[in-house]
Amino acid sequence: MLRRCLSILRLALPVLISQVGLILVNFADNIMVGRYSTEALASASFVINLFNIPMLCAMGFSYGLTPLIGTLFSQGKSERIGQTLRAGVIANLLAGIVLTAIMAYLYKYIPRMGQPEELLPLIRPYYLIFLSSLLPMTLFNAFAQWSYAVRNTQMPMWILLACNLGNILGNYALIFGNWGAPELGLIGAGLSTLAARIMAPLAILFIFMKGKAGAPYRDAFLRRPPKGVVAKDIGNVAGTSWPVALQMTFETSAFSLCAVMAGWIGKVPLAAFQIIVVVGTLGFCIYYSIGTAIAVLVANERGKAVADDDGGDAVSAASRCRRVAFDGYAVMLCFAAVSSLIFIFFSKQLMGAFTTDAEVLGVAYTLVFPLVLYQLGDATQVTFANALRGTSHVMPMLWIAFVSYVVFGLTSTWLLAFPCGLGVYGIVLSFSVSLFMAAALFLNSFMRVTRS
Q1: Alpha-carbon span 213 to 121, nearest angstrom
Q2: pTM for the complete prediction?
Q3: Comparison of pLDDT for 337 and 36, the residue scoring more
């Protein structure tokens, strides 16, 4: 068990560092924007939560590459990895184009979404900047999942850290007009984020084409395939990608619609909700990092069973997949406990960094209990969703997400916030309903799939 836990941590640590870097950028964005004005923070909350839907849908779509490439990696099939990555890049870019088109169409409906009228002049241009970053993100996602699946989790880490540092420096210059730059406020934060999201795919593509990391897979990636092979490979990638993408879409849509509901209450609850969401990403990004390692190692175990081609190995492979998942869950629970303790004992310091508005902080402080409450559910659902993803049996993820996040999650959000009169407290409290339900259903599906 100790060896597996250490393997999980070795794979997860670079991803975790990357995610911590993203958290720091998210914190820096919101702190600087919040210090600029409460209106800017509330506007950022609306746009970011709305774009979380396509961004995490795109991320989920890229997750379909992990089990495919992870299985091939354990079998030593470098040429097939290159071909699968090529298909994955094409599929992810096509998905990015579709998502960009959908969000461009939704732009004209912003005034009908019930947000405070005074925020619309800030929301509109910030929305368009985020729209421009979707396609570059999908390209980076595809190459990042390839790198994770071949157990090279460090390379995306260094790229993200460098881009995140540039993002923070750009924020400092463009939000407040430092170093001779124009003072652009929220728009400056958006432009800085866009620049970072363009640089990341350019950097990882350059490394793949010129560096040692991509050398074993480059020729197959660039070689012109026989007729019909690309379409078949794209179909294989899409088969494992779209259920995960829709699972994350349902989950993110539910939480993003919670931000819309918070906006119905007013700009102060919306700003407080954004602070809680950003602080809560500390836990989610840790869980995501460990979940990525679990998915890779489960896929590796599955690949070894296929490579051995031993009929009796299916039982032992299922057992090994379970051991990986539950060892990963033990690691996950330790980090969930740490996250919860940080939220409990350092909430005032964390939240006080975002704004000096006493009214916003007063509301945010009341949301610590529901924030801590849902950590166990979040950690559990991430563990077993990723374990299930590693087996490539991803179809159950679709209905689980729809039932948990959309049917029960949104219903409980509305009931707790409005008929029960709990307002934004009820909105955050409802997260526990959907996350604990999803956790139970993902665990049940994983156990069924790996039944020996």
Answers
A1: 45
A2: 0.76
A3: 337
DSSP designation for 355 = -
Annotate 27-60 with b (16+ C-beta within 10 A) or e (fewer).
bbbbbbbbbbebbbbbbbbbbbbbbbbbbbbbbb
* Digit-coded pLDDT (tens) for 18-54: 767 666 676 677 778 877 888 888 888 788 878 878 8
Secondary structure (DSSP) of 90-156: HHHHHHHHHHHHHHHHHGGGGGGS---GGGHHHHHHHHHHHHHTHHHHHHHHHHHHHHHHTT--HHH
Tokens of 439: 């956790």
More confident residue, 8 or 276: 276
Is the sign of the CA dihedral 332, 334, 336, 342 positive or negative?
negative
Give 369-401 pLDDT, tens digit per residue: 999 999 999 999 999 999 998 888 888 888 999
Sequence-distant (6+) residues with CB within 8 A of 334 are none
HEC sequence for 253-315: HHHHHHHHHHHHHCHHHHHHHHHHHHHHHHHHHHHHHHHHHHHHHHHHHHHHHHHHCCCCHHH
